[in-house]
Specification:
Blueprint: H1 2-22, H2 32-49, E1 54-59, E2 64-69, H3 77-91, H4 96-103, E3 121-126, E4 129-137, H5 141-155
Antiparallel strand pairs: 1-2, 1-4, 3-4
């Protein structure tokens, strides 16, 4: 009987170990070096346009990796930029999608936890997966988004 219990216990441990391994996923992560490259490209684009903006790069969970506030940019743009970047990262789509939904009458989008429904947040993808996002705030919505796109393009 003891031998049988030992075999059953060993089998259970093997099954659990196999199940645990099957639940692990390999993920790519945005590095600080990549975030700096993305922000530098966005900054160069902003400066070329004479834009005063905040540039924010976050990881896939919307956690802050890098924040730059260009000289003479309004302070309010700091939290707005963070919100735009987080929105793009956690919802896996540009923040403009939510602005468009609200403009088109879907005001329920205002109730989405963690969503900043303002244009200017763009996803950063690698091998088809969102691994982070960039948010830009301080100028017109379209200009913010264009600067964010310039930063995201530097990652490719």
């Amino acid at each position: 009987m003891t031998m049988r219990k030992s075999l059953m216990a060993g089998l259970a441990v093997a099954m659990i170990a196999g199940t645990a391994h099957a639940q692990v996923v390999d993920k790519k992560a945005l590095t600080l070096a990549a975030a700096k490259k993305i922000a530098a490209a966005a900054e160069a684009d902003a400066k070329a346009k004479g834009a005063r903006v905040v540039i924010v790069v976050v990881d896939e969970g919307g956690n802050l990796l890098l924040l730059e506030r260009l000289d003479d940019t309004q302070v309010a743009s700091v939290n707005v930029g963070i919100g735009k970047a987080r929105t793009a990262a956690i919802f896996r789509r540009p923040s403009k999608v939510f602005e468009d939904q609200i403009r088109d009458g879907r005001v329920a989008a205002l109730a989405l936890p963690g969503a900043t429904p303002l244009q200017g947040g763009i996803t950063i993808t690698y091998e088809g997966k969102v691994i982070g996002a960039i948010g830009v705030s301080g100028e017109s919505p379209a200009q913010d988004e264009d600067i964010a796109k310039a930063g995201a393009a530097a990652f490719k």
